[in-house]
Specification:
Largest sheet: none
Helix content: over 70%
Distance between the termini: 15 Å
Number of helices: 14
Number of strands: 0
Shape: globular
Structural class: mainly alpha
Strand content: under 5%
Length: 299
């Protein structure tokens, strides 16, 4: 599957999950919702791997890395996003998460010794400016009260944690690891950790059998976790965490387009211009290196 296809899958699917997540908030504690999502995703992908040949053995060091990736990609980072939206709008939370573009570059520079690509920095700057324009109506409504500052801090923490998990995935390629088994263990460890943390907080497992919760959970497990997370990790191993992070610029725009159809979101001339700026930044950041190499993503 080409890089362009994987990029579109991540952007479109994660853009749609913003609406699906809204059906998860309420009766079930956010930690348990995240746990159900990723544990179910791990089991589903494990069955797929078994059908295609099974999981190969991994070293203790590799499992520790998978645990780290699960914590930062599939566990606490998602929980922090859920929590942040109790205090700030999802649009503002999405804007803060676009900081992954910059943190990935910085972390990869100091952790893995990667050179900082000028095209990525220019594209990231334009992309972030575009998102700022798109979400300006939401941002202009914020004030400096304590709860909103708490929401900002939670969203920033989520972005930094997701960035660390993303950069760590680049090491998998050096070990020659296939994407699917890595994703299985990352989701399993992330979901298991969320369940354990919920129990330590004294929050017993609960479940919502309403159609809205069940359908949204199935969608988040199948597409948001198995399909999109596998595609995202594959992109990191192919293109690097810096350019892959541009997914986090595109999917908030997809989310707004869906909100326009389903929730009546209103666009302004500034927000439309912002989308154009984002696409320009995308073009500059990816350039002709956004190739169509094929790489194995099988088990």
């Amino acid at each position: 599957m080409s890089n362009a296809t994987l990029f579109c899958i991540c952007s479109l699917v994660w853009g749609s999950t913003w609406y699906a997540v809204s059906w998860q908030l309420g009766t079930v504690d956010a930690m348990w919702s995240v746990a159900y999502r990723f544990l179910s995703g791990a089991v589903l992908l494990w069955f797929i791997c078994c059908f295609r040949g099974g999981l190969t053995g991994f070293t203790l060091r590799q499992h520790l890395r998978f645990f780290f990736q699960g914590t930062f990609l599939c566990g606490i980072s998602y929980w922090l996003v859920y929590e942040s939206e109790k205090f700030i709008s999802s649009g503002l939370s999405a804007l803060i998460c676009t900081g992954i573009l910059y943190s990935n570059v910085v972390i990869a520079r100091f952790w893995l010794g990667h050179a900082v690509k000028r095209s990525v920095l220019i594209g990231a700057t334009l992309g972030s400016a575009g998102v700022l324009m798109v979400f300006f109506p939401h941002i202009s409504q914020i004030d400096s009260n304590t709860l909103q500052l708490k929401g900002l801090a939670l969203a920033l923490g989520a972005a930094l944690m997701f960035s660390m998990g993303s950069v760590s995935c680049e090491v998998n390629q050096k070990d020659g690891l296939s994407v699917a088994p890595v994703t299985v263990f990352a989701m399993f460890y992330g979901g298991l950790e969320m369940g354990a943390m919920a129990l330590l907080r004294g929050v017993p497992p609960t479940f919502d059998f309403s159609p809205g919760y069940l359908v949204s959970l199935i969608y988040l497990v199948t597409f948001g976790s198995v399909v999109a997370m596998t595609s995202y990790i594959a992109l990191i191993q192919r293109m690097g965490s810096d350019r892959t992070a541009y997914v986090d610029i595109i999917y908030p725009i997809i989310a707004l387009l869906i909100s326009t159809v389903l929730e009546g979101h209103q666009w302004t001339p500034v927000s439309v211009l912002g989308v154009a700026v984002i696409l320009l930044g995308n073009l500059l950041a990816m350039g002709n290196r956004f190739d169509r190499r094929r790489s194995g993503t099988s088990c």
